[in-house]
Amino acid sequence: MIEQQSVTRSVSSFTREQANTVDIIKELDKLEELVEDSPQIGGRALWVNADRFFVCTNRIRAFLPEEMKRASKLSRDSEKMLQEAQDEVHHTLESARREAERIIEQARAAASEMTARDAVRLKAEEEAARIIAEARQQADQIRRGADQYAREVLAGLDAFLGRILGTVQRGRAKLEQQEAESSVR
Fold first, then answer.
1. CA distances from 16 to 67, 94, 162 (A)
2. pTM > 0.85: yes or no
3. How is the chain split into domains, by residue range?
């Protein structure tokens, strides 16, 4: 125990700057050599130089915490960067989803409006075609009616003129007869 306290005191003077220069692999190799070089029975070390053992372990301890701090900081930084990246991805995906929904809604509204306009246009075209067909039928009926009326009027006029012509011819014939009678007299 006294031996261990003296080693601990000698190692406590070992500074962190010195620990940073220690190659941890070399220190672990030294520990292995201590065990391998010690007297052994049945593969077990009987005696290990405690001073050398504690110097090596204290150097490793002095070195490890700094490395652990760096590794822990790197781990926290990595986790923070990963979380920020995940948040950014989530935000980007959410923005893209909202934009896609907006575009889809606009497309639906435009399609609906175009369909409505097309429906109105088709209905207007159908109505216009119906009105044109009806107007043509009416025009044909009017034309046929007008032609019939004109035939009737002309036939009536022909009959009337025929009577007038008959009257005129009779009147002329009477006048000629009277003139002939008066010239004979």
1. 11, 49, 146
2. no
3. 2-74
